[in-house]
Amino acid sequence: MRPIDKEFAEFDRPDVPGLVFMRIENGKASLVRSYGLANLETRLPCQPWTNFRLASLSKQFTAMATLILAERKALALDDKLARFFPEFPRYGNEITIRHLLTHTSGLLDYEDLIAPGTTAPLRDRDVLDILQRQDRTHFVPGTRFCYSNGGYALLALLVECASGRTFADFVRENIFLPLGMKSSVAYQAGISEVPHRALGYSRRGETFEQTDQSLTSAVLGDGGIYSSANDLFEWDQALDTEKLIRRPFLEQAFTAHSSASDVPGSGYGFGWYVEFLGGEQHLWHHGSTCGFSTSYHRFPARKRSFILLANRSEARLESIAGKLFDTPP
Questions:
Q1: Is residue 205 one of the residues assigned to a domain?
Q2: Considering its fold, how many domains does the chain have in total?
Q3: CATH number at residue 130
């Protein structure tokens, strides 16, 4: 057993939900490992091309779509919500697109406001409806950090308003296809398909139960994108170029606009946590939703990245990732 395989021993079985790990060094996938099953029912193994729901890793794509439109002058980062949602309550007059990107809007948590007895999956438009029924924010926008999935659902709708395309179509046409991410998709049940799809699971005692969808799984802007390690390699490489947007816009995503976040020692950019380890910039994000756990870390100065995708809840990827940063190439 390779030393690195010991970190993934709990996934390295023929009867459990799995994991795909990729380490990228200087433009190459220097180590790729796949463990366990993408589908327990069909016994389909996880592979580098297996598509996992990214959960909150989706936010970096929502942020990129917003920046693309900002560069094209279809919107401005300091535009207020009222420009796009004229029926939004007065408190929206103080919230800008920049606030949404940086989790400094103060929006209430839409998950806590879902009506009891709701059974139909929510979509981004439903999140807007919920937030439009509120009359306050947690704090004055721009004064604090409070992680907001609802803010990123609104960003997906802003992309639609500014582009005239659905969010799913816009990210496909302006991000996935230009980068060769042929299998990535903002998934809409009944409209799109996810090739090589992993199903999500949660541990129940000594076994695993399929928990692939929840009430909020169809909300795209905050967590509804599916992708694979292979496709994320293409994304990772593009972030060192100007394939999608010019460097001044891209650097804004990698700048800590809030000096503090919900993770000690980190600030937050646009869809990225930003911190410095030993003086070196570390860009990262985790994702967690019913049945999936994801983790993505970039060290731009070293051109080194780590991608971990698992189709199980509570996979403890944060702990595993931290042990891999200084492993030999």
A1: no
A2: 1
A3: 3.40.710.10
